[in-house]
Amino acid sequence: MTRPAGRALAAAALAVLLAGCGGGAEVAGDAGNDVAASDRPGTTAPQSPTGAESARPLERSVPVGLRIPAVGVDTPVMRLGLAADGTVQVPPVTDDDRAGWYRHSPTPGQVGPSVLLGHVRVGTHGDGVFRHLARLHRGDRIETRLENGAAAEFTVTAVRTVRKAEFPTDDVYGDVKRPELRLITCGGPRVGEEYRDNVIVFAALSATRPAPS
């Protein structure tokens, strides 16, 4: 877990670095639309999904796979750190697009907010792995596979589309008392080669499968 100052720095860098999200052609469809207000976190804590109180946290283990059935995502997960200029790395722009886990955050299933990033568009290669992230709704499932053979399942509690200039640092990186997940990509209208907004999915642990003994 990074310290609060480190989280704030990383969040600010993340909001800037995800601006292009791979660039490329104009994105069609609903990726730029704000989700319904009922799906946005408000001033109160998001509701706990069924099973969230009974699901026990897992030991630290690097995520190797991510599956989101509602939007057709089934992707390997790579590790991401900080670039030489101090900004948060994002997955490379390739035709074999993958999600990436920010390694200075908890691993999925550990107490705290585990952060995964993905592109909405990968240049001339077309759609990115998180192309349809904004279509998720409260109650949708997110499954993560870990290096040690364990698995953590999360339930979406909220989806937000926010201006990059108003990136909710505390909501994304702030300490929480349970295992949670944050998925982040770009969204909203495009200005030149950049997207105006970030799409952020918030989810809480609802079930686990321990590592084989």
Describe this structure in words.
- The chain is mainly beta and 213 residues long.
- The protein has a single domain, classed as Beta Barrel (Sortase, Chain: A), CATH 2.40.260.10.
- 9% of the residues lie in helices and 34% in strands.
- The chain has an 8-stranded mixed beta barrel.
- A hairpin with a 2-residue loop joins strand 7 and strand 8 (194-209).
- The two termini are 26 Å apart.
- Mean pLDDT is 78; it is low at 1-6, 15-20 and 22-46.
Number of helices: 2
Q: What order do the strands of the largest sheet run in, or round the barrel if closed?
A: 1-2-3-4-7-8-6-5
Give the H and E element order: HEEEEEEHEE
Beta-strand percentage? 25-35%
Q: Assign the CATH class.
A: Mainly Beta
CATH superfamily: Sortase
> Residue ranges: pLDDT <50 for 5 or more in a row?
1-6, 15-20, 22-46
Compute the CA-based radius of gyration.
16 Å
Helix fraction by DSSP (H/I, runs of at least 4): under 10%
Gap from first CA to last CA: 26 Å
Mean of pLDDT? 78
Q: Tally of extended strands? A: 8
Say what the CATH topology is: Sortase, Chain: A
Structural class: mainly beta
CATH architecture classification: Beta Barrel
Shape designation: globular
Largest sheet: 8 strands, mixed, barrel
Number of domains: 1
What's the short story on this structure?
By secondary structure, the protein is mainly β. Helix content is 9%, strand content 34%.
